[in-house]
């Protein structure tokens, strides 16, 4: 018996955040020279896709059954998540189906199988391999071809509704049973099946069900790419009769938006040559077209959205005297402390998305010069007019130079810093453009003292273009801090108002002490792309037009 359907479990990168999906990939399947298992007819093939999980093969999905065909091109598109850092084993199994009894899994129904990895398919884009029977025996000359396409975010989906009128009648005792196929014509002039409609029985003016396809599938996001539509008269033995074809582009299809309709003559080239007064074999009409735009994190980044990174460091007395080697703030010339490790790990990722490479660096919970009054939002470079440092190294240097000048004190209040960054984010929001998103990294050694104010500040911030990452440093009991990370339920303000979006990610640094710095960064930043997309989707801000590449000054002037 086959294992239950499902993608299987995915190992976690960190306790809080699931493994971030790098991409989704569409897989299209076709076969050639399949074995003929049926006595009177040809085989009725169907493909099963299985994925290996914890050593077990689990069925993910299956294709439609194609009647009486040894060279099937399946309309079913398999979608799988693609993880760069994981070997994902796939198995494709082809079976001869038997009508209402469904797909058998007996040896005599098995037409062959093939194993590969998602990575192999993605790297090659098109993989053709022989099919094997049990015990490694070739299934004759049978082959299976898998074509992969990454689903890009900015494509979105298009919903199409087609009908036809006055199609040629191909049947002797009844009317034609038409179905429509849409093909994309690729650069090498090969044709890729995009969609196959259902069959409308006994009807020369069929109305097919509306369907959705990704713009990537339909036209590779190129509006002028040529498309071919083919209308067939269905035959139960697989010998479908050609009615006619038409050519178009997605650019032309878009004229069908709103009340407009677009139509094409459905042409049979043979009739056009043979028949003097031949006009067409019917008309295909696009009744409606709706575009559903779906934007990804990369769309916003490539459209020029900058990630502004702010770090806030806990300078409360519970960290211990920085001159003492037991202190969490102790500067060891040979080994960075936990504050520095967390700051560098996260900052080095964020700096790639900030063109000026300047980062705000703030401190809280210390008495600061000249009056040595307690401050909960001071610039660690002691410049109140400009709290930005040059690059991550600038933040590290400001942190190290400020330690001898301040007195660690308390309490651990973080609401003032959240509010400070939120004010800047609120100014950005008024531009009504996806131009800047703010990430606040708070490094603290204990549970916050102003929990009510912090909850209120987070609820307010959830309406703004910002995310908050909190890393717990040291060995304190951080149980109460989990409340701020909405993974276990919706965070609410003291008055009961819920956050609009889950914008807080909390992790204790000690869980990454023995891991590489990249593990911490992957964990705490895993949810940021989703948070960025959620915010701009809620605001209905599309990505700005992609900017031209910014020259890297370190490369010198172009020749």
Salient structural properties:
alpha+beta, 3 domains, disordered C terminus, Immunoglobulin-like, seven-stranded mixed beta sheet, 559 residues
**Would you tell me the structural class of the helices and strands?**
alpha+beta
Figure out the total of helices.
Answer: 11
> What is the CATH level 1 assignment of the largest domain?
Alpha Beta
Largest sheet geometry: 7 strands, mixed
**Gap from first CA to last CA:** 65 Å
Kindly report the name of the CATH homologous superfamily of the largest domain: von Willebrand factor, type A domain
Which outline best applies? elongated
- Whole-number average pLDDT? 85
Low-pLDDT segments, ≥5 res: 1-21, 546-559
Indicate the percent of residues in helices: 10-25%
Provide the gyration radius in Å: 30 Å
- CATH topology of the largest domain, by name, is Rossmann fold
Please provide the count of β strands: 26
Would you identify the CATH architecture of the largest domain? 3-Layer(aba) Sandwich
**What is the count of structural domains?**
3
Strand content: 25-35%
InterPro entries: C2_dom, C2_domain_sf, C2B_Copine, Copine, Copine_C, VWF_A, vWFA_dom_sf
Pfam family, one: Copine
Keywords: Repeat
Protein name: CPNE7 protein
